[in-house]
Write a structure and sequence with these properties.
The chain is of the alpha+beta class. Helices cover 47% and strands 16% of the residues. It is globular, with a radius of gyration of 31 Å. The N and C termini lie far apart (87 Å).
């Protein structure tokens, strides 16, 4: 009709609203009605699950009665009659009813920790015989350096005690959650094949136990290690104790275990990093991840990639449905439309894929959380209906908290929900803002998602780690290019392993390339000098970071309007993160020109570097942390290491060896002949073998030279007699000469070995030295005669801040200062460098 507007017919209007239409549905304002009930349930569960069951029951009854009353009143006053609007009554009722449900669920779950004889037996540290039903995959504790040793490795298993026999011999049936801690001598083989029903389980073979397996074991009960934990007691099992399989795992768990074992077998031929990371990326199996790799992922905020996450599951569903934003279009892509499947059938297949994902990755809370958040995030970006997806997220939070109230106290759950909420609310707006300023669409979406997730999650991470990562956004952004192919190929290898191991190995080899990229990215980001900054820990630090982030976002909106300011800010961030040596030297003076010795700040441990030419240095000890020593060497510009001297095998001197070896040409490793403790000796030899570095023994009388640097080994003797009283007294002791300076490096020698050193031919000729590396972190155990003979002008002490050992001892500091020595210590002065030559040219920095 001319001059008018054509009105579509009713059939046309119906057709325009069908899925598959060429125009996606329009977004409306955010629907926040379900958010308050979900938050109320979350908070109630967090408080009630560790409180009194009576208090939880009272809250549940009061809130249930109040909610029911509001519903009745709302029905009678429909339409707002009597001054009560219709919308307010049902919303308040929903909030009260959700609170009641959360209190009831939390009270019941909390009561499990107090029911039966297990809590009482744990408080008495009783020795019991227990029948357990395993509820989680066994996992190894990650070695942590504590003082001069690494904490012993243990296997942790979550289980329910279904039958317990106490010291009095009486057996009681119950169902009480416990944490089983099994001491193991070493990691052993990691075949992960489930034991037979009659096979004993002992030591590292606990790693083969599948969830739902029933075991009978003897051990000692103890109270929970952390107050408010979700277990009633800790069952400690010695490495010599045997457990017997009472009932085999369920069929579904056997199938899942076979699939996981097939993936591990398919990855056996990959590089170490890819072999460790790919099973974690696909099914959350992190048994092969080394502490060094784990620390690198933690430092760059990529740790979510080593666990089952919603992002991985979203990729699988995207492969089925198609790229984001196309699910409603006629031209939608993905596997399902290519084979002619309609959306409803595709939804059914997506549900089946979800079920398989949960079964293979175990129906644990973290997996359920990942499946729920992954479905929600994909549904939001695929359909464009973010208005209805925020209520879906709130509903998922509510149902998961009611199913498992302990999730309400989980930081992992909090981070997942915050990240998913950011993707639904902040990311679209930030992406649109970037597109409006000329950023390409795909890059804008990736930047918006990474920045939004980091903005809301960083305060929580700061609460836990007391550190803020400056490389998290770029590392997560760059990792996104590799996550999708690694995940898809990894799951393909998982599915192919039961059918053909050669095919699975080929797929795993292809997946190894992007997986190796992610590992290299994490290591490189963590090793950057400015990868992160220390931040106040606890909730105060988190609140401060949240406030700072909000201010940064407000300022950023103005900054984005000027491309010049954006470029300057980006350049400043790059300079802060990379800290180029010329710039850092000009601003901070580190590393000082002409440095001859540098003592790295590695906490409670030792790591020294002796300059041996441009980019070359001899490393004496590696400290307890690979990241810290790697950063120190990078800041010094050391790329070639002719020799690494490990004075003895205590963990605070050798645990950081991987950081020294990473990315550097290393000639050899020299060690003491006293090979104790054995686990650290095995660690050093394993790291050296992985990189093809020979290990040799240092003995008194040996002389070496590289470039301007020369050293002589003073201790230990070739055949020590008497046998050293522990590793400290077998420390390799070096007399170093460089550029006219004389340095004495004592390792951790104790007074008996110090006196014995002075009686040797080399010790009898010991001259006064310019620099002394004080033995054993400046402990009180020093031989006065050795200090008198050495008469150092500068005394260096490598020590950790607020260490529990009282190092350095006041008596040692007083003795050194009384002889006129300048004392520098890493806990107060940070990294220390000695510059120049002997005589008056000797200088120290700082």
């Amino acid at each position: 009709m001319a001059g008018g507007r054509e009105v579509p017919s009713a059939s046309g209007r119906r057709a325009a609203g069908r899925l598959g239409d060429a125009h996606p549905r329009q977004e409306g304002p955010l629907d926040l009605r379900l958010v308050p009930p979900a938050l109320a349930a979350w908070g109630t569960a967090a408080l009630a699950v560790t409180g009194s069951p009576w208090w939880a029951g009272l809250v549940a009854v009061v809130c249930a009665v109040g909610g029911a009353g509001l519903l009745v009143v709302g029905r009678r006053r429909a339409g707002g009659v009597g001054g009560v609007p219709l919308w307010r009554g049902p919303s308040a009722a929903a909030l009260l009813l959700c609170t009641a449900a959360a209190a009831a669920s939390a009270g019941l779950h909390g009561a499990d920790l107090r029911r039966g004889p297990v809590p009482g037996l744990g408080s008495r540290f009783a020795r019991v015989e227990a029948e357990l039903e395993v509820t989680s995959d066994p996992r190894l504790t990650r070695p942590r350096v504590r003082g001069d040793h690494a904490a012993p490795t243990s296997v942790l298993v979550e289980a329910d005690v279904v039958r317990v026999t106490g010291p009095d011999g009486g057996a009681v049936r119950t169902r009480t959650p416990v944490l089983v801690v099994v001491s193991v001598g070493d990691r052993g083989a990691d075949s992960r094949r489930g034991p037979g029903k009659s096979a004993p389980v002992q030591g590292s073979s606990w790693l083969s136990v599948l969830p739902s397996t029933r075991l009978r074991v003897r051990g000692s009960l103890a109270p929970p290690m952390v107050a408010g934990d979700r277990v009633a007691a800790v069952l400690r099992v010695g490495s010599g104790e045997r457990a017997w399989v009472v009932a085999a795992p369920s069929r579904s768990q056997r199938v899942a275990g076979a699939l996981r074992a097939g993936l591990r077998e398919a990855t056996d031929g990959l590089d170490a990093d890819a072999r460790a990371l790919l099973p974690g990326l696909v099914v959350g199996d992190t048994a092969r991840v080394t502490p060094e790799l784990h620390a690198a992922f933690e430092e760059t905020d990529l740790l979510h990639l080593m666990a089952v996450s919603g992002a991985n599951f979203t990729i699988l569903l995207a492969l089925l449905i198609g790229p984001p934003g196309t699910a409603q279009l006629v031209e939608r892509r993905g596997l399902a439309p290519r084979i002619g499947l309609p959306l409803r059938t595709t939804a059914v297949l997506g549900g089946a894929l979800t079920l398989g994902f949960v079964v293979v990755c175990r129906p644990e809370p973290s997996v359920l959380r990942a499946a729920s958040c992954g479905l929600i995030a994909l549904l939001a970006v695929a359909t464009g209906r973010r208005r209805s997806l925020l209520p879906a997220l709130a509903t998922a939070v509510l149902l998961l908290v009611l199913y498992d109230p302990w999730l309400a106290r989980s930081y992992g759950f909090l981070l997942s929900v915050l990240a998913t909420g950011a993707l639904l609310t902040l990311a679209p707006r930030w992406s649109a803002a970037l597109r409006g300023r000329g950023v390409p669409a795909r890059l804008a979406e990736a930047l918006g998602a990474a920045a939004a997730a980091q903005a809301v999650c960083a305060p929580v991470v700061a609460v836990l780690a007391a550190r803020v990562s400056l490389v998290a956004v770029p590392c997560n952004l760059l990792a996104e290019f590799a996550v999708a192919p690694a995940t898809v190929l990894g799951f393909a290898a998982l599915a192919a392993a039961p059918l053909s191991i050669p095919v699975a190995k080929s797929l795993a080899w292809c997946a190894g390339w992007p997986t190796g990229w992610i590992a290299d990215l994490a290591r490189t980001g963590a090793a950057l000098p400015g990868s992160g900054v220390d931040w106040p820990g606890g909730w105060r630090g988190g609140a401060l970071l949240a406030l700072g982030t909000a201010v940064l976002v407000l300022v950023g909106r103005r900054v984005l309007r000027s491309p010049w300011i954006c470029g300057v800010c980006a350049l400043l961030l790059v300079l802060v993160i990379t800290r180029p040596a010329p710039l850092v030297r000009g601003v901070t003076g580190w590393p000082p020109a002409g440095w001859r010795l540098a003592m790295c700040d590695v906490g409670q441990g030792d790591a020294l570097v002796l300059a041996a030419g441009a980019g070359t240095g001899v490393v004496v000890d590696a400290g307890p942390d690979p990241l810290l020593v790697d950063r120190c060497l990078r800041s010094l510009g050391v790329t070639r290491v002719p020799a690494v001297v490990l004075t003895h095998f205590h963990a605070d001197h050798v645990a950081g060896l991987a950081g020294v070896l990473r990315g550097r040409a290393v000639g050899q490793i020299e060690t003491t002949g006293f090979e104790e403790p054995q686990e650290q000796v095995a660690f050093v030899r394993r790291e050296a073998a992985r990189r093809g570095v020979p290990v040799v023994r240092a003995a008194a009388g040996e002389r070496r030279r590289t470039g301007p640097l020369g050293w002589q080994v003073l201790w230990p003797p070739p055949d020590p007699a008497p046998t050293p009283d522990g590793p400290n007294d077998a420390s390799v002791t070096l007399l170093v000469r460089v550029a006219g300076m004389t340095l004495l490096l004592l390792g951790d020698l104790e007074p008996p070995a110090q006196r014995a050193l002075l009686r040797t031919p080399q010790g009898a000729r010991l001259p006064p030295v310019d620099v002394l590396k004080v033995a054993h972190h400046g402990s009180a155990y020093q031989d006065p005669e050795l200090l008198r003979r050495a008469a150092p002008r500068v005394a260096l002490i490598s020590v950790g801040r607020d260490n529990p050992y009282g190092h350095p001892a006041p008596s040692t500091l007083a003795a050194l200062r009384a002889r006129g020595s300048v004392v520098l210590r890493t806990d107060r002065d940070g990294a220390v460098a000695v510059v120049g030559g002997g005589g008056d040219a000797l200088r120290v920095f700082p």
